[in-house]
Amino acid sequence: MITDHIMMADKDDEPGTDAGVITKTRPRTQRPPLYKVLLLNDDYTPMEFVVHVLERFFGMSHAQAFELMLVVHKKGVAVVGVFSFEVAETKVAQVMDFARRHQHPLQCTMEKE
Ligand code: TYC
């Protein structure tokens, strides 16, 4: 664990009480960066295909998937999940590959949160 401290004689034996000197430690926890996976609207991909993608790759119920598909359809883009870099990269690749295999122009991207 990395800590910040400047060691000074703490004459009264009470931590953190020497005038003007920081003596308390600050533990630094490591949190991995998170990545948003975004789904983009287009004019050609069928709505049912997008619903299926959200169910299949993002574990959503049919109702959740339908609702989020409509958000993308109306607003142009939506966050469909937040993941570690590796999981986000895999989801994007799975969606792009699935769309390509079905000859739909659906676009899926990721960005750092
Ligand atoms: N706009 C598409 C249509 O009207 C549906 C659609 C929704 C496409 C979401 C892509 O990410 C998307 N058929």
TrEMBL record:
Alphabetical keyword list: Hydrolase, Protease
General function of this protein: Involved in the modulation of the specificity of the ClpAP-mediated ATP-dependent protein degradation.
Classification via InterPro entries: ClpS (IPR022935), ClpS_core (IPR003769), Ribosomal_bL12_C/ClpS-like (IPR014719)
Top-rank taxon: Bacteria
Biological processes, Gene Ontology terms: protein catabolic process; proteolysis
GO molecular function per UniProt: peptidase activity
Ranges for domain Adaptor protein ClpS core: 31-109
Pfam families assigned to the protein according to its UniProt record, in alphabetical order: ClpS
Gene behind the chain: clpS
Originating species: Rhodovulum bhavnagarense
Family: Belongs to the ClpS family.
SUPFAM superfamilies: ClpS-like
UniProt key word Protease: yes
Hydrolase as UniProt keyword: yes
UniProt name for this protein: ATP-dependent Clp protease adapter protein ClpS
Lineage: Bacteria, Pseudomonadati, Pseudomonadota, Alphaproteobacteria, Rhodobacterales
Subunit: Binds to the N-terminal domain of the chaperone ClpA.
